[in-house]
Amino acid sequence: MRIIERYILRRASTLFLAALVWTLAIVWTTQVLARINLVTDSGQSALAFFEIASLILPSVLPIVMPFAVIIGVAQTLTVMNTDSELAVISAAGGSRWTTIRPVIALALIASIVSFAVDNGVDPYARQRGRELVAQARGDLLSLVIQEGTFRKIDDGLYIQIGERLADGKFRGIFVADSRTEGMDLVYYAKSGAVVERGNQDLLIMEDGEIDRKIANGDISIIRFDSYAFDLSAFAGASGTPKLYPKDQTLSYLFNPDRNDPVYKAKPESFTAELHRRFSEWVYSLVFALIALAVSGDARSHREARIHPIVTALTIALVVRWAGYFIANQVQPRPWLWPLVYGIPAGTAGICIWFIRNNRTMELPVYLADGLLSAARRLGERIARFGGSGRDLTSGGNV
Fold first, then answer.
1. Coil, strand or helix: which one is 207?
2. What does the pLDDT look like over 22-50, one tens digit per residue?
3. What residues pair up with 230 in beta bridges, in sequence order?
4. What Å distances lie between residue 180 and 96, 158, 176, 230, 251, CA to CA?
5. Angle at which helices 97-116 and 283-295 pack, to 10 degrees?
6. All structural domains of the chain with their residue ranges
7. pLDDT digit string (tens) for 160-195?
8. What is the number of other CB atoms lying within 10 angstroms of the CB of residue 100?
9. CB 58 within 8 A of CB 117
10. Of 15, 19, 192, 333, which residue is most buried, by most CB within 10 angstroms?
């Protein structure tokens, strides 16, 4: 690799790593905050929380890496073009491959890392995460059932205990269950206890009633002397956690256990997961080609309606959304699987055509004008709001 190519690779890699760190931090933070209630509600330690948080990283990394690639490459080429560096390279007799080779090298490295993480690290991280969640929910039976507080066991399921007795039993039990669409169940019981029978953890309620309300407004009340409410699905302590296709290794997806309850229920989900894993890793390469097609030519971008990096990110978002949409549709519609590979392959082909013909990939005129108009209106509103704030401040001082 020549000096100028190493120079481009170094600049693009630096911006790629910077974009990756910040994008990964933002996405990771949102994912962690969505799971913080599980740890706090079950009384887990800070160490358990950070372990669960760290196990999220392998699943987030393959998602954000292509966007870090396109940001790093597009910004590098745009700055080099603004500083006339690309024009100097072209005038000195350098071919387009001088720019393309380091970008493709960076994209291939990112793609290989993405494939390795998605297939070699993420499944084990997900399995460990399932175990920690099962352990946290197992502790739920002894920790979450506290006196005088409503505690969330699952989405739509809440339990409240009036008093915990010395013998381990409960007095004054209230359970609200709205997990079934169109039906609300409320359980009241004077006493009860959590017991283990076989592989089941049961909340045995005694001397109570069940209030059932359905969507049309009908209400029915059922009195009972004893009623068992199954908590084993939330405890997870009595058995191994349920593993879904995303949690399985690549070898297991090729040869799943025919007795796996998840496979019995939805065998097509394993095939859909295989297609996803063999297609998602190429998006880093596809996004690099988009950046090259948008901002890799040695020509002035002053006549462009919007900044090249905005154009590149807009196209990338549309392509990635289409890929996600088709990947989610493969499970109910298996005949759509060719599109899982066709979307990145077709996008790459279009970008290669633009690059070979020395054309710049741009957004349609009406879309670019619409984005500019929206940005202009937003800027005017912010300016008016700022001006109003200054007027109010000055008026108050008078």
1. strand
2. 888 888 887 777 666 655 555 555 676 67
3. 202
4. 60, 14, 11, 15, 36
5. 160
6. 3-137+243-383, 144-235
7. 888 877 676 888 888 888 888 888 889 988 888 877
8. 17
9. yes
10. 192
